[in-house]
Amino acid sequence: MLTSNITIQNIIRSKKALLLDMNNTFMFGEDRFSKSEDYSIYYESIGGYLPQSVINEIIRNIYEYLDDLYPKENYRNNFPSIADALNETLTFDVSDSEIDKIVRTFSHHEHGYIPKEYIDTLHSLNKRYLLSAVIDIWAPKSLWLDTFKQHGIDKILSTASFSSDHGIVKPSPKPFEMVVNQLGVSKESCLVIGDSKRRDLGGAIAAGIDCILVGGAQDHRALACYANLLEFRSTASLLEARRIIAL
Predict the structure, then answer these.
(1) In the Cβ-directed half-sphere of 18, how many Cα atoms lie within 13 Å?
(2) Between 240 and 244, where is the model more confident?
(3) Residue 23 and residue 134 in contact, taking contact as beta carbons nearer than 8 Å
(4) CA 112/CA 31 separation, integer angstroms
(5) How far is CA 30 from CA 26, 136, 231, in A?
(6) N or C: which end of the chain has fewer CB within 10 A?
């Protein structure tokens, strides 16, 4: 998208709502699924009884099953749940209580943290924009909702789409369109912000919404690219200050 800085600034100034990606946009340290990860540490802390080698294999199998399907277009609008992945990968029966512990262990390792400066940035952006989120996670959303509530983010997000609620993952345009409809605004007044060219920019383009990339991602189709959400906040704040002065 070949546009001048002045044009980009005018477009950003005209927006009313932000559709935020989460991972590596305002949450970090997520997806701790390396081959060396020991899932039994958390699992045992919540009362799990399966041996270390067994629970580690179960979690790795779930992750590898879902990770293989995640980029595939034919799973974009019907992505499996963790329960589906367990049905496909678990080779023996376990109780419902143990399944719950497995899901909680997976959630713990998929979940990240929100640095204070990003919490402050979200609250600051909410003074200027309607905030929403379009989030891809594989586990149920309860742990993330708890984190949002802990930091007061639940009060500033007007709406959010969690892929684990409906099985639709980015870059499908559907979750973006759902959020726009729930906000009750036009696509033209919205701006997607995320770190992934394929998922965030691709989904935004498919939905017909402008997108800004953060986190080092670069693509000529994006409206603009910033080092991170903090840098975008600084730019938005400066543009707002100029607008107020001009009034």
Answers:
(1) 27
(2) 240
(3) no
(4) 7
(5) 11, 12, 22
(6) C
Strands (E), 104-175: 130-135, 157-162
Q: Is the peptide bond before 71 cis (omega within 30 degrees of 0)?
A: no
Q: Would the pTM count as exceeding 0.90?
A: yes
Mention every residue, 6+ apart, whose C-beta is less than 8 A from residue 180: 17, 19, 186, 187, 190, 207, 209
Residue 128 burial (C-beta neighbours within 10 Å; 0-12, 13-18, 19+):
middle
Asked if 209 contacts 191 with a C-beta cutoff of 8 angstroms, the reply is yes
Which pLDDT tens digit goes with each residue over 137-192?
A: 999 999 999 999 999 999 999 999 999 999 999 999 999 999 999 999 999 999 99
Chain mean pLDDT for the chain: 94
For the purposes of burial, counting CB atoms within 10 Å of the CB of 167, is it exposed (0-12), middle (13-18) or buried (19 or more)?
middle
Among all chains, which residue has been given the structure tokens 């100034």?
13
Q: Output the six-digit token pair for 246.
A: 């001009």
